Amino acid sequence: MSNANPLALIVGAGSGLSASLARKCAAAGMRVALAARHVGKLDPLVAETHARAFACDAANPVEVAELFSAIDTPELVVYNPSYRVRGPFLQLDPEEVRKTLTITAYGGFLVAQAALARMVERGRGSLFFTGASASVKGYAESAPFAMGKFALRGMAQSLAREFGPKNIHVAHFVIDGGIARSGGDHRAAARGADGMLDPDAIAETYMAVYRQHRSAWSFEVELRPWVEKF
Question: Cα–Cα distances in Å, from 126 out to 52, 70, 120?
Answer without folding.
Answer: 20, 19, 11
